[in-house]
Specification:
It is built from three helices and two strands; from the N terminus they run E-E-H-H-H. With 113 residues, the chain is α+β, with helices and mostly antiparallel strands.
Length: 113
């Protein structure tokens, strides 16, 4: 027995027939909305000046683009990673010679320096 499945989109704004789903993000949230061609064009027209003036983030891996500072406002930048690793080893912490330094080690370093 054959079966046909038909997906029909309804515009979430006005209830008319939608052409499909539009995905977008704002702030820290991702949204999707089903829109007709008319309402898709209206959304694009409204966003065009903002998109034209905006810049794309440096990272597209899905991770945060900005780096968080340490709890006391000090930052563990790349310039002092060697110093942090040396401090950690001399204070009983196990850290690799390369790669990410655990947050607990960074917090301990920043609280004593």
């Amino acid at each position: 027995m054959a079966k046909n499945v038909v997906t029909q989109y309804t515009d979430d704004l006005d209830g008319s027939k939608a052409q499909g789903t539009v995905h977008f993000s704002y702030g820290n949230s991702v949204y999707e909305i089903d829109l007709s061609a008319k309402n898709t064009k209206a959304l694009e027209t409204a966003l065009d000046p903002y998109i034209a003036a905006a810049r794309k983030p440096r990272s597209t891996s899905g991770r945060r683009v900005t780096r968080r500072g340490a709890p006391n406002g000090k930052s563990a930048g790349t310039s002092n990673l060697g110093e942090i690793r040396a401090w950690a080893q001399s204070n009983g912490y196990t850290v690799a010679e390369r790669g990410r330094i655990p947050a607990t080690v960074l917090e301990a370093f920043n609280s004593t320096n």
